[in-house]
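The protein record quoted in full:
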Amino acid sequence: MKDKGIVCVSGCCHQKIMATADFAMNKILGGDKLYGVYGGLHIAPFGPMKPKQEQMVKDMGKYNFKRIACNHCTGEAAVKKMIELGYPVVKGTARYGSGSDLYVGNGDEVFFG
């Protein structure tokens, strides 16, 4: 994003958001300025978080993302923890079959600009 920083985009990144963000910071020009993340973070998609998953959510704070637009496979417990920690989570509408408005779902739009 011009004048804002990098937005990391993932599909279903299977607990690799930290590696993705680290790669952007270390290998991409302007990576010292991460702006946001969008996609399925697959942190705790099947229920309650384990200690390792909870620590991963806490560790995401080091990137100081300005917008986090995650979807269903991030896991509702992980999204709730992000919100509890004060992370800038973009909420959805829970329309078109999405299970919750805590995350971006079907038919939702996300603007990073």
User: Anything to note?
Assistant: The longest strand covers residues 6-12.
